[in-house]
Structures are given as C-alpha cells and as structure tokens.
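As described in the Methods, two query proteins were run sequentially through the folding procedure within a single session, without resetting any intermediate state between them. The first query and its resulting structure tokens are shown here.
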Amino acid sequence: MLDQIKAVIFDLDGTLVDSMGLWRDIDIEFLGERGIEYQDDLQEKIEGMSFTETAVFCKEYYHLMESVEELKAIWNRMAEDKYRYEVQLKPGIMGFLDGLKARGIKMGIATSNSTELIKAVNDAYHFDKYMSCIVTSCSVKKGKPAPDVYLEAARQLEVLPEECLVFEDIVKGIEAGKNAGMRVCAVEDAYSAPQREKKKELCDYYIESYDEIEVGR
C-alpha cells in the first residue's frame, strides 16, 4: 500500500476520529430548537460539503434567519466540547501515525470540518505532532467530491498527487481523492456502513482498522 508513497493525507471525521454519529444528534437538536423536523436524508444531502457550503445549503433549504457565519458559530459551539472531550480515535490510528513518522512519510489532513473543531480535537490528540499541513474545504473553491482540498494538501506537502495515499470514510471523500489522481484507502465506519459496497468498489484498498497495515521502515 505504501510503495512509492511520499505523503499520506487523512480526512478527519470517520477517518482519524470516530465522530460522524455525533452530528445527527447535533442536527436534531439544532433543527428541533427551530421547530423543524429532522429528516434522515439530511446527511446524504450535505455529504462532502465544506462547513461553509453546509451552512449555505441549510440556510436556503430550511429558510433560516441566521447568517451563514452565525450558523457556523452555532454549530461550532454545539460541537466543540464533544470534539475536545468525547470523540474517540479510530482503532490503530496512533500506531500507524507513529509508523509513518518513523518511515519519513509526510502527513496532512484534508477535511470538510471547521478550523475551530480541528483545534478542539487536536487539543485532545495532538495530531499536529504528525501533520505538516491541515487544509479545510472552506479554504478552497469546492468541497468534496471535487479534488480541491486534496490537491491543496499535496501542494503544501510539496509532493505530486500520484505520490499521495488518501484515507477516507465516505463515498464523496473517496471520489475527491480519486479525482485528485491519488490512491485511496477506505476506512470502515459505522456511520457509512450503508455505503460499504460502493466504497469497496471505488477505493484501491479497504481496512477495518489501521492495525491491518504493515508500515515497515
């Protein structure tokens, strides 16, 4: 898997940390406070969108009074403590990061999440000890499945796209990595279980745990 790879780029939610499920609870609470019933297809509608794109979509779709920036601030407040104190790591990830670091492979994060929540989860797990760059989809033109966030991460890591291996947990994220011309390993995640077969169809590799990967030297 790591042959000819100079950089590994990780999505955050569902890939480094087991956090996808908490957003359903946040969405139910947020919409409920505004008298709006949560619909199970919401996550499918916003999958892959950047934090800003999601706010734009929800403002228009639900006819919300708050501005895009106000919506993002509300969601950050609702999720911050969960990311700092409750979110758990994906199985085997820290050992894998240590192995990549020992092997001299560059690492980065390319995520649809917000800078504020990345900081919160970093306070808990100190991913910045490993990552040479952290890129959010809000900092590029288009969110996933567009390749923008992965191409920007490769640029900051000073490697070619074909020298990168991406780890992703959802279909649109896998598509973003493939659209960037990178190899992609899909990660098992309970949230995206209904996508499992499609994920396996699209990706180059599939793992249930990072413990399955032999890093070597």
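Immediately afterward, the second query was submitted; its sequence and tokens are:
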Amino acid sequence: MKIIDGNHLANKLRENLKKDIKDNDLCPGLAIIYVGNNPASEVYIRNKLKTCVELGIEGNLYHFEENAQQEEIIAKIKNLNEDKKVHGIIIQSPVPKKYDEDLLNSYILKEKDVDGFGIYNVGSLTANKEEMLAATPAGVIKMLESENIKISGKHVVMVGRSKIVGRPLAMMFLNRDATVTIAHSKTENLKDITKLADILVVAIGKPLFIKKGFIKKGAVVIDVGINRLSDKIVGDVDFLDVKKKTSFITPVPGGVGPMTITMLLANVVDSAKKAKERGK
C-alpha cells in the first residue's frame, strides 16, 4: 500500500508554475465572482487568493450580496471578459438557489473558463478534445499519472455523478481508454459494483462510507470527499479500515484537496500564456 501525497505533488506543481510565470514573463489574472454569504465558500476563496499571491497571480474578488440582480452579475462577467488583465473567471460554487449557475457560467468566454464548467469546455471534453479541464478531476488524473498508475484498459468505478467531479472525471477516464462505471445515490447493490473496480473514485459526501468490504484487494482508491466529523476532517472512504487492502490510496486531508486549487491556477497560467501568444 502506498499513500499518494497530494500536498507533495501540489507543491511540486506550484514551483513549476512559478517558474513558468517567470520564464514567460507572465502577469496572470484570476477573477472570482462570489454571490451571497457562505462561510465554507469564504474559506475556499481565501485559500485561492492566498495561493495566487504565492505564485505571482493577480487574484481579485467580486462579491455580490444575495439581493443582487442576476443581470448585474452577468454585466460584471461581460466586463471581465473584455479585461485583458484577466485570464480566468470563476463563479464560486454554490450560488444561492435564486440564481442560475449554469447560465452565469455560460457568459464566461471559453478561454477564460478556468473552472471548465462552461458548455464549450464540457462539450470539448465529451468530444475527446480536452481543452480547459475542471480542476478536481484534472487533479485526480495528475495524481494517478504521477505514480505511473495505468488507466488504459482498467475498470474505473466512479461513485458520484456531480457536474463538478463525477461526470467530467468519468469522461476523462473514458478518453484515456478506461472502462467506466458510474454509480450514485440511487445505485442498487453498490458494494457488488465497487468490488469490481481496479480504480475506485469516491465523491459522494458521506463521511467514512466506503469500508474494506467495498473494495477488492489491490485496488487504487481515490477519495475526493471532504467532510467535517466532530473536530476533524475526513473523507468518504474509511482510510484506516481500507488502506491495507489497497495498492494506492489518497488520504483526507492531504490528498485530492491540495490538487484542486493547484490545477485551477495551472489553467489560469495556461490561459495567460495563450493570451500572450495571441498578442492580447
């Protein structure tokens, strides 16, 4: 059993990003649009802005109160689309239910859609023409690649079907020639399905849900879940119960989490490089 250290890999990738920014004389810019007041979102935003500073990326926050009109937010997106100093725009998820998050994302220019949630980038992924990839799924693939874990021909079971993780990640695995099964909250006999997985990825938001009886010996287990349980953070996988049965496993915290912000900012840097190449 080997633990895939997300902190170590993320730090290595961030050093490469800093070098990339310096070597290419870039001034990447990220705009974060935040609507309403959500304490969890504010923690994520602080972490993104802090990492921007560390890497040399100009990060700016645009906060709209929950009484803001959707048209105001769209107007800001259009303004940021025209701003040549901005290379990435994200809508901090979730937004209050009165707003249409998909509609808001649709107004972001495809080359500035660094979350990869816009319809163009989703469509490109589906067509196996990967361009801007969603950060968490891209982080999972990068972690597997860093350990030279074979994907082609393997049976991947994806537990979770969210637009943020499960669906795009399943498509990325398909694009890499894996055989993919998507399971979710309505799946019957879930344990029978997960036990078939060579690579099991879990993103369901249920703390310590996956036990050793859910996996086959030697499986690779990737835990995307982040749950607060009493005074600690745990994943969707019961790490202590499962780890001895795995060949590779990610911990929580310190696994997929650190990779998400890193891959997001890698998209910003890539967007800035392409903008410079276009002379914009």
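The CA atoms of residues 56 and 170 lie 32 Å apart. We note this only descriptively and draw no conclusion about the first query from it.
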